[in-house]
Amino acid sequence: MSDKTGAVLVIGAGIGGIKASLDLAEVGFKVYLIDRAPAMGGTLAQLDKWFPDNHCGMCKVLPIFSRDDSSQFCLRRGFIHQNVETLPLTQVVGLEGEAGNFRVTLSSVPAGVDQDLCIGCGLCAQVCPVEVPDEFNEGLVNRKAIYLPRPTIPSNSYTIDWKNCTRCGACVEKCPLHAIDLGSETKTTTLEVGAIVLSSGFEEFDPHVAGQYGYGRYPNVVTSIDLERIISPCGPFEGQLARPSDKAIPTSIAFLQCVGSREVKRNYCSAACCMYALKEATLIKESNPQVEIEIFFMDMRTFGKGYYRYYERARDELGVKFTRCRVPVVKQDFQTKNLILTVMDESRNMVERQFDMVVLSVGQTPAAEFSSLCQTLGVRQNQWGFCSPSVSVRKNVSVTENGFSVAETSREGIYVCGSAAAPKDIADTMIEADAAACLVSKLLSQERQQPIEAVSQTETPEMADEEPRLAIFLCTCGGELTTGLDISAIAESCRELPDVVLVEEIPYLCQRDTLEKVKESIRESNANRAVLGVCAPFVYRRLSQQLAEDTGLPSFFVRTVNLREEIAWVHENNREAATEKGKRMVRMAAESLRWQSASPLSSIAPQGSTLVIGGGLAGMVSALALAEQGFEVHLVERSAELGGNLREIFFTLQGGDPQKLLQELTEQVTSNSLIHIHKETNVAGISGCAGDFVANLVSVSKGVPPESPSTGEIIPLNPPLEKGDKGEFDDEDSVNSEGNIGITEGENSGNGEKGVSVTKSVSVTEMVSIPIGAVIVATGGEGSKPAEYLYGERQDVVTQTELEERITSGDVDVSKLKSVVMIQCVGSRNKERHYCSRICCSQALTNALMLKERNPGIEVVILYRDMMSYGFEEEYYTKARDNGVTFVRYELDRKPEVKVEGDRLEIEVEELVLGGRLTIQPDLLVLSVAIVPHQQPELSQMLELPIDEDGFFQEAEPKFRPVDFVKDGIFVCGLAHSPRNIEETIAQARAAALRATLILSKTQLQSGRMVSEVRERWCVGCEICVGVCPFGARVKDENKGIVVVREALCQGCGACVTACPSGAARLRGFSDKQVFSMLDAVAFP
Amino acid sequence: MDNVEKDFEPVFVGFFCNWCTATASDVAGTSRMQYPVNVRPIRTMCSSSVDPLYVLRALLGGADGVMIGGCTPGDCHYVSGNLKERRRIVVLKTILNTLDLEDKRIWLRWISAAEGRKYANTMIEITGKLKAMGHNPIKDYWSI
Question: What is the dotted CATH code of the domain comprising A110-184?
Answer without folding.
Answer: 3.30.70.20
